[in-house]
Design a protein that fits this description.
By secondary structure, the protein is an alpha+beta fold. The protein has one domain (about 5-65): Alpha-Beta Plaits. Helices cover about 10% and strands about 20% of the residues. The protein is built from 2 helices and 4 strands, in the order βαββαβ. It has a two-stranded antiparallel sheet with strand order 1-4. Strand 2 (about 30-35) and strand 3 form a beta hairpin. The longest helix has 5 residues, at about 20-25. Bound molecules: iron/sulfur cluster (2 copies). One iron/sulfur cluster binds near residues 30 and 49.
Length: about 80
């Protein structure tokens, strides 16, 4: 089991509901709340800390804070040997 404690800071007051973060996330972390037109962050432990959601957000409404102490950040190729 991979244990992570990644965090994503989201500022709803800055968000304009453009959906770009939702489209950018290639894993299942960002879902879309159609009713409120805003992203919903689920399964944050699955976040690959690619920073795409943060990068595409022109309103700086998202900040990704990776957990650098987690096991996930210290994987190496020996696991494939
Ligand atoms: S990219 Fe930014 S402004 Fe657009 S929906 Fe996501 S958080 Fe909101
Ligand atoms: S950092 Fe990457 S994987 Fe994590 S929520 Fe943002 S887009 Fe998804």
């Amino acid at each position: 089991m991979i244990r992570t404690n990644h965090k994503i800071e989201y500022s709803p007051e800055k968000c304009v509901g453009c959906k770009l973060c939702y489209k950018a996330c290639f894993v299942d972390v960002i879902r879309w709340d159609e009713e409120n037109k805003r992203p919903v962050f689920k399964y944050i432990s699955d976040c690959e800390h690619c920073f795409l959601c943060q990068a595409v957000c022109a309103k700086e409404a998202i900040r990704v804070i990776p957990d650098y102490s987690s096991e996930h950040m210290h994987q190496n190729f020996s696991q494939y040997a």
